[in-house]
Design brief:
Helix content is 48%, strand content 18%. By secondary structure, it is α+β, with helices and mostly antiparallel strands. It is elongated.
Length: 290
């Protein structure tokens, strides 16, 4: 998908959310007919604390029929655990499609070893609901059937509680108000932070996965540069922790360090090559004397 179409999808999703929040009031529709109050909607989100552990022993079944624990699926890699309602008629599909596009862009740029899982948080949803959701969201389906998960009521409840996922059920429309988000988890299955899927850019996804990898993902240069950046919750992006002049100094120092390391490696290699050449010459001379 082109960047322009991607931006249009994000604008459409933002308009959908805004319409759900404000159009009923603007039209003078009674609050009861709007389904949920603004206070109820404002309670939606993630309340999990960084460092909280997800239940790695929770057993989940994927859309391909395989049943494995969450820990087996993450397999010691950093990753994203996104939550969706397979019967959602508003934001779930669009948010998952944005995630899939960011994943594809990440793969096209070289990729990182990680896991992305999409978990249904409503245990009432059936396999037929999940398959219908996949059919209606082909971009999200490109993540692979092994990435689309659901669990029984007990496993789902444990995962939702551990994730701090706050939803509000609207019985009038049989829909949940819920965040269009995912949890960034580290190599031990611990939460780093929540990410907004609507605004998730490929660059942000890459930086987040490098941060969550505990030093196992990304190049030395990427990890060093990321150490000069911090997470800005307001913008949903990484931004410099220091001003432009100091950042330039940081990058200059990084470049000088990388250059010095390269020079030392090259010098050692030439020294080893020279030693090997000398040894070969001495061996030839000894053969000639014989």
């Amino acid at each position: 998908m082109t960047p322009r179409r991607d931006r249009l999808s994000r604008i459409w999703l933002a308009a959908t959310i805004a319409g759900a929040l404000f159009v009923p009031q603007a039209l003078g529709v009674p609050q009861a007919l709007a389904g949920l109050t603004r206070d109820e909607l404002s309670s939606v989100g993630f309340s999990v604390r960084p460092g909280a552990a997800l239940p790695l022993d929770a057993v989940l079944t994927d859309a391909g029929g395989a049943t494995r624990s969450l820990g087996e699926r993450l397999a010691g890699r950093p990753g994203l655990v996104a939550f969706v309602d397979f019967t959602c008629t508003t934001i779930c599909g669009v948010a998952a499609n944005v995630l899939a596009r960011s994943e594809q862009a990440l793969a096209d740029s070289g990729g990182l070893d990680h896991r992305t899982l999409v978990v249904g948080f409503d245990a009432r949803d059936t396999g037929r609901d999940r398959d219908a959701w996949l059919a209606g969201n082909p971009e999200a389906a490109s993540l692979g059937r092994g990435a689309i998960l659901s669990g029984d009521q007990a496993a789902t409840a444990r995962l939702v509680e551990a994730s701090g996922l706050r939803t509000v059920y609207d019985p009038e429309h049989d829909q949940f108000a819920h965040p269009a988000g995912a949890l960034l988890v580290d190599t031990e299955g611990r939460v780093v932070r929540s990410l907004d899927l609507v605004s998730l850019e490929p660059e942000t996804l890459r930086s987040a996965l490098i941060e969550a990898s505990n030093g196992t993902a990304g190049s030395f240069v990427e990890r060093a540069i990321l150490s000069c950046y911090g997470w800005d919750a307001e913008t949903g992006r990484y931004k410099p922790l220091i001003d432009g002049a100091l950042m330039a100094g940081c990058l200059t120092t990084l470049g000088a360090t990388a250059g010095f390391v390269g020079f030392m490696l090259l010098r050692d290699r030439r020294r080893n090559d020279r030693a090997s050449s000398d040894e070969a010459g001495e061996a030839g001379q000894e053969g000639g004397h014989g």
